[in-house]
Amino acid sequence: MIRVLVVEDMHIVRAGLVALLDGEFGMEVVGQAADAHEALGMAGRIEPDVALLDIDLPGMDGLALAGELPQHVPACRVVMLTAMDRVGYVRRAIDAGASGYLLKTISSKELAQAVRAVSAGGRVIEPSDLADAAGEVTPLTPREAEVLRLAASGADTRAIATDLFLSVGTIRNRLSAAVGKLHARSLVDAIRIAERHGWI
Question: Which Gene3D superfamilies match (predicted)?
């Protein structure tokens, strides 16, 4: 029997997930929580095999929770279930120790299959193009990524230069190089591309 913990802050969504998974052969929802604090409080007691986590939780988000759960239940494997289809989130989820990353648009059959696969030691990322993109290597140098990240936060060239103790010209050159490497039409386009691929 696969023991599942469902962590989702939206009551109606959580209730639907519980009903769906409890109806699956060989699966039992042994706990449900609305936030990370509640989940951590019960995880050690119920010892789930798989934790199904929403990323966008109040307080500690699902990614942070994925990193904390192994300290309470070392054998528990994590599946992220989210509406966020950005590669950066996939990378962060994997780095946090998640074995699965699923969009909320998947079917109930696909969800059950993913929980079984992860419970058996596998890794599931759907849709597969997110997995492919998460494996891509960034064309940006660490310094180019750094200035692009600061630009994405709203800092202008002068503020970035001051923050990094560099000249304005050096910052402009790095931003220009980043735009060129990403084949972007503008700085805004470069930021969008880099964020989409999880490179900043």
Answer: 3.40.50.2300
- Same domain? 40 vs 114: yes
- Cα 73 to chain centroid distance, Å, stands at 20
Same domain, 97 and 151: no
DSSP string, 16-74: HHHHHHHTSTTEEEEEEESSHHHHHHHHHHH--SEEEEESS-SSS-HHHHHHHHHHH-T
Q: What is the DSSP letter of 1?
A: -
Residue 31 shares a structural domain with residue 129: yes
One-letter identity of residue 78: V
Question: What was the pLDDT predicted at 5?
Answer: 97
Give the CATH number for residue 157: 1.10.10.10
Give the alpha-carbon dihedral of 62, 67, 73, 76, to 10 degrees: 70
Rounded to whole angstroms, what are the CA distances from 134 to 89, 130, 151, 192? 9, 6, 23, 16
Confidence of residue 29 (pLDDT cuts 50, 70, 90): very high
- What's the chain's average pLDDT? 89
Same domain, 116 and 189: no
